[in-house]
Amino acid sequence: MNETIKQLLTRKSIRNFTGESVKEEDLNLIFQAAQRCPTSINGQQISLVYTKDKEKIKQIAQLCRNQKQVETADVFVTFVIDFNRTAHAIESLGKEQVVEQSAEGIIVGAIDAGIMLSSLQTAAEALGYGTTAIGAVRCAPDEFIEILNLPPKTYPLVGSTIGVAKDHAKNAPLKPRVSLDSFVFEDVYDDKKVQDGVEEYEEDLKQFRIDNNMDYLTSHKEAIASFYDNYYMPQVKSSFEKQGFIFKDK
Ligand SMILES: Cc1cc2nc3c(=O)[nH]c(=O)nc-3n(C[C@H](O)[C@H](O)[C@H](O)COP(=O)(O)O)c2cc1C
Description:
Elements (H helix, E strand, L loop, with lengths): L2 H7 L14 H12 L10 E6 L2 H10 L4 H4 L3 E8 H9 L11 H24 L3 E5 L6 H7 L6 E10 L3 H4 L20 H21 L8 H9 L6 H8 L8
Antiparallel strand pairs: 1-2, 2-4, 3-4
Helix pairs in contact: 2-6
């Protein structure tokens, strides 16, 4: 099988690291690969802030709802929407930027960050490292803004750990997904298939957890509900607004 496809088909989040270092030349390659990804209008409105400092990573782990696996990573990278960079370009023309004050601006930043996150992680995995995306940076956005020294018109969207995976993490089974036919549709969306897929997945994931002795986990439906039946990150709205992201679309 094609090596790239094989890598994509076997990828998984890694939450157990040996503590060994990511080589400096590898980290440099990983950042170059991440930067090669596409960005909306070639605006390049993402910046990365990374740290290898163990004390800072410990602090970041605490801010990310005390996620222990973050603490064991060798590198932590934060993906920042950077409309400060585009503002420098626009203001140098004597014009005023308003993109951060639009719903579209948030979408542009979030999509670009997501694409870059995937490129960065794929590059790290190709070099033999493990990664996990960390959305929990948004549990404490104000604190991230402060410790990363982020100016107005920027926002910490998501992070990624990078480290050397422990063998048992590397060999862990792949987490199942909803069936392909309830996920990808030709021509039109099919809600019946989506609904059937949800029920099927609940059983598949239950079985996966039984087979792998993960009986400490609740049902997938319950897990999703524990987030999505409430406004689970209310701090995001106010911290966005503090950074100048206020929708004023007309
Ligand atoms: C944007 C984003 C944010 C995430 N945030 C976290 C996180 O804060 N902590 C964590 O342990 N995993 C996090 N994950 C990883 C997901 O939990 C994981 O991808 C999912 O459970 C599927 O497992 P797999 O990646 O091993 O296939 C995040 C994933 C994404 C894409």
